[in-house]
Every structure is written in C-alpha cells, then in structure tokens.
C-alpha cells in the first residue's frame, strides 16, 4: 500500500481490492480529523465563550458550546466519507466525457487511496494549524492537494481505463478550483487582518 505514495502508476496497475481497505482508509482519515478537532476544541470553546457571553446567558452559552463540541468532533469523520463520494462522483463524471470505462464502484475504491497523504501528513498538519501563520498552512495545504491529485490522476487512469493525458485533465479541473479557493481564502484573510490592524 505504501507504494501508492511514491509510485501510484505501478500500484494502481496491479490493484485488485474490495471495499474493506478503501473504507478503512477513509475511516482512519476521518478519525484522525476528529482527533485533531478534539485537540483544538479548547481554543474554539474559549473563543465562543468570549463572543457569546455578551449576548447570551451562561446556560445558553453552555448549550451552544455543547452542540459545537459534538459537531466539531463528528463532522470530520462524516465529511471524510461525504468528500470521498463527491470526489469519486466528480471524477467518474468527468472521465465519462473522455470515454471512461468500468463502474462507479471501481472509481470509488481507487480514489479512496488519495486520503493517504492526509493520514501521513496529519502530525505536520496539526503542528502548522496550531503554531504557524495562515500563509504557511495554505502553502502546506496546496502541497498536500497536489500530492493527492497525483494519486488521483493514476487512480482515474486505471479505474476508468483512459490514457494519462485525459486523466490529468479530469483531475486538474477540480484540483485547480480547490487551489484557487485556498489562495482566495488566504488573500481574504490577510486583507481582513490588515483591516482590523492585526
């Protein structure tokens, strides 16, 4: 399985798998996301308490924080599966335009391996999120997205039996949009900081 991180073309060429490993990978990604969120929950609660205490009673603030705490821990796990299905569906649809073959279940299985970079890089991800400026986090996020895109290129190539050029186009479209959103978010955040005088 480690081969997919550095030689995805060879890995997917030989891959024959059921749903156990793909579900395990996505589940592990979701669990790690939930753990990271749990480790950050103290900062989130402190921020919410400061913001809401001026407008709500102590009991109302407590209820809101309890709801946010549950959502913060559960959401990453659910989001992992939702994003897995969306990624597979988008790439399956785009590759259909280029004459992609085989069923959606094969695309779903192969695209699950794109979650491995998140699992491998999660300690560094948490460190940057905790201690580094937003620009470092954005650069790291883009680099991680490019690594995941590289895996997806070969996942689409071999799951849909299309050539490399068409597979790159399929993956490049949504990946470019994600990178553009990340850059836009960073610029917006920097403008907000300048406006607030931070």
What would you say this structure looks like, in words?
It is a single chain. With 198 residues, the chain is mainly α. The chain has eight helices and no strands. The chain has helices at residues 3-6, 8-14, 20-52, 58-97, 104-111, 116-131, 134-160, 164-196. Helix 2 (8-14) runs parallel beside helix 7 (134-160) and helix 4 packs across helix 5. The chain starts with a helix and ends with a helix.
List keywords for this structure.
single chain; about 200 residues; mainly alpha; about 0% strand
Provide a quick synopsis of the model:
The protein has 198 residues and is mainly α. The chain has helices spanning 3-6, 8-14, 20-52, 58-97, 104-111, 116-131, 134-160, 164-196.
Total strands: 0
* Average pLDDT score: 86
Largest sheet: none
Count the helices. How many?
Answer: 8
* Helix-strand sequence: HHHHHHHH
Tally of distinct domains: 1
Q: What class, by secondary structure content?
A: mainly alpha
What proportion of the residues is helical, as a percent range?
Answer: over 70%
Looking at how many chains there are and whether they match, the oligomeric state comes to single chain
Radius of gyration: 20 Å
Morphology? elongated
Roughly what fraction of the amino acids lie in strands? Answer: under 5%
Topology of this structure?
Blueprint: H1 3-6, H2 8-14, H3 20-52, H4 58-97, H5 104-111, H6 116-131, H7 134-160, H8 164-196
């Amino acid at each position: 399985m480690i081969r997919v991180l550095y030689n995805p073309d060879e890995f997917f060429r030989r891959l024959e798998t059921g749903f156990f490993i793909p579900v395990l990978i996505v589940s592990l990604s979701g669990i790690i996301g939930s753990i990271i969120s749990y480790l950050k929950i103290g900062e989130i609660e402190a921020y919410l308490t400061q913001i809401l205490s001026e407008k709500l009673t102590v009991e109302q603030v407590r209820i809101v924080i309890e709801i946010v705490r549950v959502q913060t821990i559960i959401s990453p796990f659910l989001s992992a599966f939702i994003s897995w299905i969306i990624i597979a569906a988008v790439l399956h649809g785009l590759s259909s335009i280029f004459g992609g073959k085989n069923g959606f279940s094969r695309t779903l299985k192969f695209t699950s391996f794109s979650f491995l970079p998140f699992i491998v890089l999660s300690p560094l991800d948490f460190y940057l999120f905790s201690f580094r400026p937003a620009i470092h986090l954005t650069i790291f996020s883009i680099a991680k997205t490019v690594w995941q895109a590289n895996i997806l290129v070969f996942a689409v190539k071999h799951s849909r039996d299309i050539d490399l050029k068409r597979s790159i186009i399929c993956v490049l479209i949504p990946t470019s949009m994600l990178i553009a959103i990340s850059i836009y978010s960073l610029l917006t955040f920097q403008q907000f900081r300048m406006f607030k005088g931070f």
